[in-house]
Amino acid sequence: MKESRVLGLNDFYMADMDLSHVDDVVLIERLSFTTPWTKEAFISELTRNKCARYRIILKDGRVIAYGGMWIMLDEAHITNIAVHPEFRGIGLGSMLMEDMISVARENGVHAMTLEVRVSNTHAIGLYKKYGFAEIAIRKGYYQDTGEDAIIMWKYNL
């Protein structure tokens, strides 16, 4: 497992996600999204999807944040990123983004993409901070509410 201490936060560690982390990730997913991914979906990502890369932040052995992406040839698609509500606002989202961009670079990725709800201004701001640009809108993308998604890309990693 690739693990590293997060600089400046002695109690936090970045690591590759494995099956032992799924329950914590599902909890964060449920606390973060109106239509959360299921436990089975995360298990499938880890065991069947050869394109999937998931990274977590641990504190005292507990997952408190995670991010996932699919690496396909020289592009990466960020599938999800979330921080447990108890740990929001201290920079863990930024740490995840920096780590995911680093992992993408290590895997020969030159561009990254994602979709984000038009109402999720906090996430949009985070992505813009890391050089993602709004490219297009997917009308009615989110089935739970019919909300539009902004498609964002970061080129030239």
How would you characterize the overall build of this protein?
The chain starts with a strand and ends with a strand. It has an 8-stranded mixed β-sheet. By secondary structure, it is α+β, with helices and mostly antiparallel strands. It contains 4 helices and 8 strands, in the order ββααβββαβαββ. A hairpin with a 2-residue loop joins strand 3 (52-59) and strand 4 (62-72). The chain has helices at residues 22-32, 39-48, 92-106, 121-129, and strands at 3-5, 12-16, 52-59, 62-72, 75-83, 111-117, 133-138, 149-155. The protein is globular.
Low-confidence stretches: none
**Percentage of helical residues?**
25-40%
Computed structural class: alpha+beta
Strand segment count: 8
Rg estimate, integer Å: 15 Å
Query: What's the order of the H and E elements?
Result: EEHHEEEHEHEE
Main sheet overview: 8 strands, mixed
Could you tell me the mean pLDDT? 93
Placed side by side, the strands forming the largest sheet appear as 1-2-3-4-5-6-8-7
The 3D shape can be described as globular
Number of helices: 4
> End-to-end distance, in Å?
24 Å
Notable features of this structure?
157 residues, globular
